[in-house]
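seq:
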Amino acid sequence: MNTIRLTMAQALVKFLDNQYLNFDGEEIKFVEGVIGIFGHGIVVGLGEALEDDSHSLKFIQGKSEQGMAHIAMGYAKQKKRRQIMAVTSSIGPGALNMVTAAGTATANRIPVLFLPGDSYGNRQPDPVLQQIEQSYDHNIGANDAFKPVSKYWDRIARPEQLMSAMIHAMRVLTNPAETGAVTICLPQDVQGEAYDYPAEFFEKRVHFNQRRCLDDSALVRLADTISAGKKPFVICGGGVKYSEAGEELKAFCSEFNIPFGETQAGKSTLPADNEYNLGGAGVTGTLSANKIAKNADVILGIGTRLNDFCTSSKSAYNNEAPMLTININDLDAYKMNAEPYFADAKLSLKQLTAELKKRGYKSAYKTEIKDVRAEWAEELDRLFSIEMKEGLAQSTVLGTLSRDLVEKDSIVVVASGSLPSDCQRVWNTNSHNAYHAEYAFSCMGYEIAGAIGAKLAEPDKEVYALVGDGGFLMLHTELVTALQEGIKINIIVLDNSGFQCIHNLQRSQGIPSFANEFRYRDNSTDRLTGECLPINFAALANAYGAKGFEAKTIEELKTLFPELKKSKTLNLVDIKVLPGTMTEGYEAWWRVGTAEVSARDSVVKAAKNIKEMSAKAKQF
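struct:
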C-alpha cells in the first residue's frame, strides 16, 4: 500500500483540497478555502499546513471568530450549498466565539466546516492556556459546546482518526437533507503528529447530489389530495431554490392556476412579478399571501421548515385544510401534522405536474389571485410614499432603495430586527437568488459578514447589507476583513436608535417602554430614559478606511447612490429613520409568552388574547 507521511494537519489540508461535488452533472470544487484567526492552539499545527503552498485553498484572515464563520455561511448560502469555506480558531474563547455561528449554520441548514483548536491530547501541559476543566469528567472541554449546534461532531485524539472523521464530515456537509455545522476538534499536539496515511485517502473524491423522486403510490396519494381541493396554496421554501426547482414551480402554478407564498429562504426563487407569486407568507408576510392562505383548502409546503413565522404560530391556515409536505428532510416533512412526502422538489414537481395534467385538474380560483396582488400593489404604493415631518419612515427608505436605486440583479442581505420582516414584505426581487436572508436563527450581526460571504460567492454582483443600528453594533468588524481583501460591499445602516423591533413587541403586549432604545441614563430615575445616543456610523466607516455617507432625506439618498456604484471599496450609508415606522403585520399572529399575572391590566389583557388565539391555532 502506498503511503504518504504527513502531520495530521497537513493531511487534513490535503484531503480538503481534493473534495468535489457533482450537481446535475456539473463538477465543482467543494472546499474553496479557510477563514481563520490563529492562536497558540492552531498556528503551529494547522497554520503550518496552510502556510505551505502545495495546496490551492485560499486563506482569509478574520477579525472576529463569529464574524468569520458568518462569512463562510454567507458564502455557502449564496452558492446554494454547493461550495463551502472552512473556519478555524485557537482553543478556548476563540473556539467558543464560533458556537453562535455554528448554531446559525445548522438552523439554516447551511454547510460550514468548523475546525477549532483543542487542548492537548496527551494531557502533559495540563491545563494548557485557555483550557476549560471539569472536575467530574476530564474529557469535557470548551469544544463540547459545539455538540448541540452541530450536525456532526468529532475530536481527533490520534492522527489516524482523521480518515474516518473526515469521511463522515463530508457525508454530512454534502447531504442536503442533513447538512449544517460540522465540527472537527483538533487537539494542538495531535495536529503536529505524523502518520503514514494511505495515498488513496488523498485522491480526488467526488460527492454526487442524488435526487430522490416520488414512488408511484406516493405520487398517486399526493395527486389525489390536491385534486380533491378547489383552492390549493403552495409554500415555496428554501429547498425549492436549492433544488433549482424554480421553473418547475412556475410551470406547476401556471398549469393549474395555483398561487404560492414565499418563506424567507424561498424568496427570489421566482421573480416577484410572477402572476402567481403572492410574496411572503406568515407573520412577516404580505396581505395578499395571508388572505389567500387563510381560505385555502389544501396547503402544499415544498422544501420548507414550517417555522412559526411561516405558519403564523400555526394559525395561518384553515385547520381543516390538509397539510401536505414535499421535503428531503424527514423532520421538516412531519411538521404541522402534515402528510409527508420525501422527495426532491425539482423531480417531484415534474412528476406531480404530469400526473395532475393527466387528470385534467384546475383550481377553482377565478379573479382572487389577481385581485389580492392588485390590492397589495396599492398598499406598497402607500408604504413607499409615507412622509413625516420629524424624519424618514423606514418603509419609504426601503421603497426608494428597492424600486429606484438598487440594481435588480444585486444581492440584498438581511438577518435581524425589523428589516427581515419589512424586506420579506416589500422588497420585490426580480432576479434569481438575489435575496439572502438569515432568518432561521435571526442572528444579530450576521448581516455584514454574510454580505462579505455573498460577495465572495458572486464577485461580479453588487451586494447590499441592510442592517439596523442594533445589528451593526453587535458585529461589524469583518468590514475590516473586506477592506483588507479588497471586497466591495455596500452597508446600509437604518438607524432607529435601538432595538425597535423588540420595542414594538414589548409595547404590543401592554408593557411600557423599557430598555430597548439606545438612550443615556437619566440619573433622576436611574433608567435609560434620557436623550438618544447620537452615533455617527458614517464617521466610524471613514475611520476604518471605508467610505462613509450620511443621508438625511430621500433626495440625499438618491444623490449619493451614483457614487456608491462607482466606488471600488466598501461603502456605508448612515440613514436615520424614525422609530416605529417599519411595516405592520397583515392578518397574521405570532405567539409570544406574555405574563398571565401582572400589575398592569394591559399586560393581563394581552396574555388573555394570546391564550384565546392559541386555542384557535393548530395544536400539533
